[in-house]
Amino acid sequence: MQPRDLSDHVAYEAGRGIEEVARELDRDPSEFVKLASNENPHGPSPAAAVAIRETASSVSSYPKAAHADLTAAIAEQWDVDDEQVWLANGGDGAIDYLSRAVLEPGDDALVPAPGFAYYGMSARFHHGDVREYELSKGNDFAQDAETVLESYDGDRMVYLTSPHNPTGSTIPLEDVAEIAERTDERTLVVVDEAYGEFADRDSAVALIEGRDGFDARDDVAVLRTFSKAYGLAGIRLGYAIVPEEWGDAYARVNTPFAASELACRAGLAAIDDDEHVERTVETARESRTYMREHLEARVWESEGNFVLVDVGDAERVAEEAQRRGVIVRDCTSFGLPECIRITCGTEEETERAVETVNAVLAEVD
Ligand code: PMP
């Protein structure tokens, strides 16, 4: 027997780790720095690392209390009801839960191009189709209501990414509200704030709750993750905040034990570790400013923990930088074959990345 026809589905391309790259090039892992997957250069919150160690002896039991405790802690952080917090296996898992909750066969999801690949993948898994709205390079990948609404055609889900991966641009909350207002009442607007901690903008949770002068809406959901600012990418923990009106929909769509006990304990410790998040955000701001000032190529303004750089031939520059020990993201798969994305690192990592990329650019020219 064979799986069903999966020819319409593409495999998610995860970035390669240092060990893998070093093995392939037959080099020592210590020679490399990886700035390709928007990971936290300071590692996990130390409090979360302790919690993970302490949880080790209890992982023979199914998760119980931790799930409820973490849900309550997140609900408190956002001042929403516990039922509005949909814990999941990373932001990716939360995207799947929203697809499950909303899409019916043949429904469309409208996604940004360039954009995060998993929105479309998830829609297809859930028997939906994918349509794209274009963010244009000539316009610095600016995001506004018109850009999205011009392409909208009754799609059941509309994805906005703020800050946007891989460009770092953001969308004002007024524009999000306008999109939600001017789209069909069956359309869910998903605001992916995976990089929200690094931005100056307020969260779109204000639209769900009707705060800061916005009317409360039942057609907006917000995605957040512990992978970036909290440094817990390997634990796989993220969540969606959904409108109160959605009631017990989560209980009906979630995979049993949506987040592991380890993930929940780590998340509970991390959420209280403001110092780690603040240090991480500060590092990202310094790093992106340094890269904008010192890279000898066009660097777009970014509110994420990464910058997009126009290098001409991304594949060649990324490969050569990697040979010199700096792993960056070639954005060809995003439809930007002339750009690389560099994650904000520590001061030392950032300086090394800038020096290396500049040296490669000087030789390639
Ligand atoms: N949204 C965006 C825009 C992302 O870049 C990522 C991670 N690359 C995610 C969501 C999902 O992250 P995770 O599943 O690790 O929470």
Automatic annotation (TrEMBL):
Pfam entry (one): Aminotran_1_2
Catalytic activity: L-histidinol phosphate + 2-oxoglutarate = 3-(imidazol-4-yl)-2-oxopropyl phosphate + L-glutamate
Domain of life: Archaea
Matches recorded under SUPFAM superfamilies: PLP-dependent transferases
Positions where N6-(pyridoxal phosphate)lysine occurs in the chain: 228
Record-linked HAMAP family: HisC_aminotrans_2
Gene Ontology terms: biological process: L-histidine biosynthetic process
Designated gene of the protein: hisC
Cofactor: pyridoxal 5'-phosphate
UniProt-recorded Gene Ontology molecular function terms: histidinol-phosphate transaminase activity; pyridoxal phosphate binding
Organism: Natronobacterium haloterrestre (Halobiforma haloterrestris)
Family note: Belongs to the class-II pyridoxal-phosphate-dependent aminotransferase family. Histidinol-phosphate aminotransferase subfamily.
First and last residue of the signal peptide: none
Span of domain Aminotransferase class I/classII large: 31-356
EC number: 2.6.1.9
Record flagged with keyword Mitochondrion: no
Protein name: Histidinol-phosphate aminotransferase
Pathway: Amino-acid biosynthesis; L-histidine biosynthesis; L-histidine from 5-phospho-alpha-D-ribose 1-diphosphate: step 7/9
Alphabetic keyword roster: Amino-acid biosynthesis, Aminotransferase, Histidine biosynthesis, Pyridoxal phosphate, Transferase
